[in-house]
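Q: Hi! First time doing this. I have a protein sequence and I read that you can turn it into a structure. Is that right? Here it is:
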Amino acid sequence: MQERRRSPRLKQKNRAYVTVLSSPDDKNLENKTYSCSTEDISAGGIRLSLPTALPVGSNMEMRVVSKKPVKTFWHVGRVVWSGRGRDGNIDVGIEFTQTPESTLKLWQELIREKLARK
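A: Yes, that's right. Below is the predicted 3D structure, encoded as structure tokens:
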């Protein structure tokens, strides 16, 4: 099977906080914030493990706290896929859509450094 991802993934657990900005299929989720963790990260998105399902197409703001180096990143993205994770939580694939260019450059640099050390 051919890899369809644009960027390599790096398996990594980081603390994350997600605020749902819009959810066309479930308006009750809007403006709610969830504490969660990343499962993997890449230059253009992340996979989160959440305690609740978020419909595909939902838009969110995310605060991700990387461990090494300890740094906080703010991203805006949308759910592109969702499914049950192995731990019973919901795994959600997020594509970054409106992350500021300066933040995105720092994030991509962090990913490159971590991949180079792998």
